[in-house]
Each structure stands twice: as C-alpha cells, then as structure tokens.
Amino acid sequence: MPTYRDEAVVLRTHKLGEADRIVTLLTKQHGRVRAVAKGVRRTSSKFGARLEPFMVVDAQFYIGRNLDIVQQADSLGSYGADIVADYERYTAASAMVEAADRVNEAESTSQQFFLLVGALRSLSRGEHAPQAIMDSYLLRAMALSGWALSFEDCARCGAPGPHDRFVGQLGGVVCEACAPAGSPRIGRSGLSLLAALLQGDWERVDATPSRDLSAASGLVAAYAQFHLERAIRSFSHVEKHR
Questions:
Q1: Average pLDDT per run of 10 along the chain, which is 242 residues long?
Q2: DSSP state, 161?
Q3: Cα–Cα nearest to 92, from 217, 206, 230, 219
Q4: Nearest in space to 120 (alpha carbons), one of 221, 9, 199, 198
Q5: Using an 8 Å Cβ cutoff, are 133 and 116 in contact?
Q6: Cβ(113)–Cβ(28) under 8 Å?
C-alpha cells in the first residue's frame, strides 16, 4: 500500500459528505497536501479533533488517485484551543494560514513549515501582540519566497539610500525618481520597525506603540496581497479589530 508519513500543520478544512472532511495541510517534507479524513465528523472519531485548523500533527497518508487519505494523526502541537479562545489571535492565525496556503500552493520548503509552526506556537502562548506575530510571519514568508523588502537602497533602480517613499508593489523603499505619484512616505522609525519584524527583533517590536504597529501592519498587508495576487479575506477581520 503506497503510504507516507510527515509532520503537518492543518491550514483549513471542508465538509465532505455526512461524516468526512477534506483537509488542507502544509507538511514538512511534501509541501501543501489536500487529503480526505474519513469519519472525522462522527463523535466516535479517534482523531477528528486533531485535524482542526492551527493544529500540528504527525500524520500518515495513503496516496489516492485524486486526493490522499489521512490514515492516522498524532498530535504534536495543540495550538488551536488557545488561539480560537482569543479573537485577536484567531483573526491573526486565520490570515497566516490563508497566506501560507497561497504561498505554498506551487512549491514549499521545510523552512516555510517551521516558520508557520513557530508563529502559531508564539500566538497560542501569547508571547507577543498577535498583530506583530502575523506581520513578522508574513514578511518572513514572503522573503523565503523571494520577495524580500528593501529598506535602504531603491528597490527599483538600486540608488543608494536612505529613501522614505514606500511602495510594497515595487519591493520596499524607492527613490523620488522611481516613486509613483501619491506614494506614502515612511519615517526611519517605521522602516526600523518593518526591519525588526522581518529579523525577529522582538525587544524592538514589543516596545513599539500599538498605533505604529497598526500603521506598519497596513503596509505589510498591501505588500503581501500584491505578491500573493489574491486578497486575504481574513485581513478584513483583522482591520475591524484594529
């Protein structure tokens, strides 16, 4: 029987029939996987609760013709309960897994898997502001996919910085000559915050006022959605919370 085993994060689920679910997972070795979990909606299911969004599992899959089948799932990280109990954490996590689903649609790396697991773990423990964890995750995920921001030299022509015009669609800061009309200016403190989010400088991030975090978050959201070529629906709930 053709099977494989891998660690995975549950990104989303959909109902299938009366008792089954289609589960989308980001795995460590096999990238993004869509599989059927049979009978998990029955109360007698042994592993249904482990295949909920934001959970990390060690799963065994049977290779199917169209969709793989989840044969077994052992819990590695039960982050879902702590995340869904807090609305701000939940909206941040929802935006993260939605972005992860898109980022890893074509190809994935184990780095993307570990990045998402670390972010969900931090969210569940309340280590930092949910908004900051989400933005840090998005910046790092984009960088791993080849879309790293420039914070110093012009992202378009390479003119030495510093520059204060920020255009996420062009890759970060740009010089006056390259800046489209109406491009927002961002101060050195704002650029420093974006760099701290990308680098995981949590001492700097945690000391930042929530107003400045929200301003930076808007730039990150626009930048991520442009490169993902898809609106992240969960961002609308994040915006409402702000």
A1: 91 90 95 91 78 95 91 92 94 94 85 97 96 96 89 90 87 90 86 92 93 88 85 72 56
A2: S
A3: 217
A4: 9
A5: no
A6: yes
Q: How far apart are CA 64 and CA 184, in angstroms?
A: 50
List the structure tokens of 238: 């994040």
* Residue in the structure block whose two tokens are 């592993």: 47
Query: In 104-187, which residue ranges form alpha helices assigned H by DSSP?
Result: 110-125, 130-144
Crossing angle of the two packed helices 87-103 and 110-125, in degrees rounded to 10? 180
Three-state DSSP at 6 gives strand
Q: In the numeric block, which tokens belong to residue 231?
A: 């609106």
Contacts of 203 (CB under 8 A, 6+ apart): none
The beta strands (E) that lie in the chain are given as 3-16, 20-27, 32-37, 56-62, 68-77, 165-167, 172-174
Q: What is the pLDDT of residue 97?
A: 95
Give the residue from 185, 205, 189 showing the smallest Cα distance to 134.
205
Residue 174 C-beta-side C-alpha neighbours within 13 Å: 18
CA–CA distance, 158 with 189 (Å, rounded to integer): 22
Side-chain half-sphere of 50: how many Cα atoms within 13 Å?
20
Residue 108 has what pLDDT? 81
Structure tokens at 25: 């997972």
